[in-house]
Design a protein that fits this description.
The protein contains nine helices and eight strands. It is an alpha/beta fold and 275 residues long. The chain binds 6-hydroxymethylpterin-diphosphate.
Length: 275
């Protein structure tokens, strides 16, 4: 899943794709690099971010979704939103997945829209809300707490008429969690497989990665940590990887799949820079 933030303030790519043609071009690049899904978002959820109105969010994402439909008609597009009106506008323009970081707590009616339109949804764990979520997060047992939350949200989605097979679940790395919480969730990610749904993981360029290596790095340079965490998550059973650097993470996952599952395809040596 390639990330496309159409926002002025996203933590790693804020302001880069506010211009719709530039955003569409970047989406085409993500697809060419091997993304199966492009996740389009019009509101930043970084810690401390201020909410934006539905109208503003729609104004940001609509031209991008329209452009994508024209330039990449077969692309599988996801809308990263918690708002009913934004999701409705996006689905009308072809979005087939609603990625809701509030897991239908922001707008419970969003669940009915997902049920009625038959699109997929990704339900994510977040403690509190973006403005305040990093204020002393505490859990009894972070994995058990996140698992119980996701089980409850999955049951809610089903109770609203959503087909269980159309639900993806995400532990919400970085959303109301300390470094230790993020690492424990990654280490014990396989425990979430008992929920019976595909697990989405989003570590891409997140700040905790910049605080674990030898040097503090800017978000664009957190690729080594992004690759390491996605490979670890793959090994523990995650199946959707939400990333900014699709080509690099895709290559790392291909090597991991070849090693762990014995599945690979080879490219001709002439096309590789180094053999
Ligand atoms: N992380 C972000 C946004 N949406 N959705 C899911 N399912 N999982 C995640 O981990 C996740 C997400 C935050 O990252 P980003 O979109 O790069 O930044 P921002 O929220 O500042 O736009």
């Amino acid at each position: 899943m390639g990330v496309l933030n159409v926002t002025p303030d996203s933590f790693s790519d804020g302001g880069r794709f506010l211009d719709a043609p530039a955003a569409v071009e970047h989406a085409e690049l993500l697809l060419a690099e091997g993304a199966d899904i492009v996740d389009v978002g019009g509101e930043s959820t970084r810690p401390g971010a201020e909410p934006v109105s539905a109208d503003e969010e729609i104004a940001r994402v609509e031209p991008v979704l329209a452009g994508l439909r024209e330039r990449a008609p077969g692309a599988h597009v996801s809308i990263d939103t918690s708002k009913l009106a934004v999701a409705r506008a996006a689905i009308a323009l072809g979005a087939e997945l609603v990625n809701d970081v509030t897991a239908f707590r922001g707008d419970p009616e969003l669940a009915s829209l997902v049920a009625d339109t038959g699109v997929e949804c990704c339900l994510m764990h977040m403690r509190g809300e973006p403005r305040t979520m990093q204020r002393e997060p505490r859990y009894d047992d972070v994995v058990e707490d996140v698992k119980a939350f996701l089980a409850e949200r999955l049951a809610f989605a089903i109770s609203q008429g959503i087909d269980e097979q159309r639900v993806l679940l995400d532990p919400g790395i970085g959303f109301g969690k300390t470094i230790a919480h993020n690492l424990e969730l990654l280490r014990r990610l396989d425990e979430l497989l008992a929920l019976g749904r595909p697990i989405v993981i989003g570590t891409s360029r997140k700040s905790f990665l910049g605080r674990l290596g030898l040097a503090e790095r800017d978000p664009d340079a957190r690729l080594p940590g992004t690759i390491a965490t996605n490979v670890l998550a793959y090994e523990r059973g995650a199946s959707v990887f939400r990333v900014h650097d699709v080509a690099e993470v895709g290559d790392a996952l291909a090597v991991a799949a070849a090693t762990l599952r014995g599945r690979w395809t080879t490219r001709s040596p002439a096309r590789t820079a180094r053999s």
